[in-house]
Amino acid sequence: MFDVRVQLSGQFPYETTVHQHVPDSDLQWMRPGDVVCCCVDPRARARIVLYVPEMTQCGRSSVAKILADGRRAEATVLAAAPVAADYSGRDDPFLRLDLEVHAWDEPVPWRVRIVQSVPLSAIGLVDLGRRLEVAFFTVDRGETVAIDWASSRWG
Description:
Layout lengths: L1 E5 L7 E5 L5 H4 L9 E5 L2 E8 L3 H4 L1 H10 L1 E12 L11 E9 L7 E8 L13 E6 L8 E3 L1 H6 L1
Antiparallel strand pairs: 1-2, 3-4, 5-6, 5-8, 6-7, 8-9
């Protein structure tokens, strides 16, 4: 059972409860505060199916666009946790990162939660309290925030 807030394009958000079985591997992506995808029956808004997007949908291409076109800021690592339980050590791991973001042109810092691939060579940069260079489009809960690993290594 999941208590969720649903935000459909062009409509006011609403809250409901979803009863569905979720694979254990997806539960790591569906913790309180996480943003996931859903399908909503247009005739019955309470009929919802939750799902975790594929990494290719939310991963590298959108991260590349944010890094190329986004505004720059600095983020402090508040928490880091792996999201792939079957990680083999050959590829870059995906981590869920809680960050506090500070932008020079925003009046107050804000907190975000993102899931992003972390290059093995940058794994030491996700220690608590470390500062990372990030790019973002807008102040949100993390949907448009990406870490610039190359800039963070030298910063």
